[in-house]
């Protein structure tokens, strides 16, 4: 689904069109699960459900196109992930992206292999082994499909820093994949994602990307 189509579906969903909401959910949910798996591991399904609870609650306030909706949903999901990590008293690995020296962000052929396989459960496990700033940049840029400025807004960082972190993460992934023959063979299994957009967790009052009225 293109960003234009997603934006139209979000607008119809906001007006109460259940079929349009189902289309939005089918498009965005697997990507959110993949992103959150990189942040909270096996708790991703539960945290994604909590994120959808907030997305549904605040959808009437959202204004923006498909790209903005992806960014807003990612921000809501990230807030939920950080809340979850605080509840279980796990500190996420963090590094200041702004301190990274920029380097060319054009992926080579070997990094294309990482891109091609990044949606598999094995690839997500490898992403989880990256430094946190690289993992989040790769997840936002590749799994959620955000551009660098939107990913930077989700993370509260500069676009150049996010590009660099994504480049370094993809380079490291391609090196790891290259040392594990058969890791991503034809029989690989994609991570299964659960359904349902209800969830537990109360409002946190935080917004996200896009323009939210109110």
From TrEMBL:
Residues 168-214 are annotated as: Disordered. Residues 121-173 form the RNA polymerase sigma factor 70 region 4 type domain. The keyword Transcription applies. PANTHER family: ECF RNA POLYMERASE SIGMA FACTOR SIGK (PTHR43133:SF66), RNA POLYMERASE ECF-TYPE SIGMA FACTO (PTHR43133). Residues 25-87 form the RNA polymerase sigma-70 region domain. This is RNA polymerase sigma factor. It comes from Actinacidiphila acididurans. Residues 193-214 have a biased composition (Gly residues). Belongs to the sigma-70 factor family. ECF subfamily. The keyword Phosphoprotein does not apply. Keywords: Sigma factor, Transcription, Transcription regulation. InterPro entries: RNA_pol_sigma-70-like (IPR039425), RNA_pol_sigma-70_dom (IPR014284), RNA_pol_sigma70_r2 (IPR007627), RNA_pol_sigma70_r4_t2 (IPR013249), RNA_pol_sigma_r2 (IPR013325), RNA_pol_sigma_r3/r4-like (IPR013324), WH-like_DNA-bd_sf (IPR036388).
């Amino acid at each position: 689904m293109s960003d234009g189509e997603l934006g139209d579906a979000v607008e119809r969903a906001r007006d109460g069109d259940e079929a349009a909401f189902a289309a939005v959910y089918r498009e965005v949910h697997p990507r959110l699960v993949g992103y959150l798996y990189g942040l909270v591991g096996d708790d991703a399904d539960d945290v994604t459900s909590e994120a959808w609870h907030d997305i549904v609650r605040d959808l009437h306030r959202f204004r923006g196109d498909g790209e903005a909706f992806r960014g807003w949903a990612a921000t809501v999901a990230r807030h939920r992930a950080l809340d979850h990590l605080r509840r279980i008293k796990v500190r996420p690995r963090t590094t200041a992206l702004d301190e990274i020296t920029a380097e060319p962000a054009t992926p080579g052929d070997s990094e294309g292999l990482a891109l091609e396989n990044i949606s598999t459960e094995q690839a997500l496990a490898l992403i989880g082994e990256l430094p946190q700033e690289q993992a989040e940049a790769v997840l936002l840029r590749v799994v959620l499909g955000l551009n660098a400025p939107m990913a930077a807004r989700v993370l509260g960082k500069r676009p150049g820093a996010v590009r660099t972190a994504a480049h370094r993460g993809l380079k490291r992934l391609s090196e790891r994949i290259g040392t594990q023959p058969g890791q991503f063979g034809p029989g690989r299994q994609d991570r299964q994602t659960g359904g349902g957009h209800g969830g537990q967790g109360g409002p946190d009052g935080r917004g996200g990307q896009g323009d939210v009225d109110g």
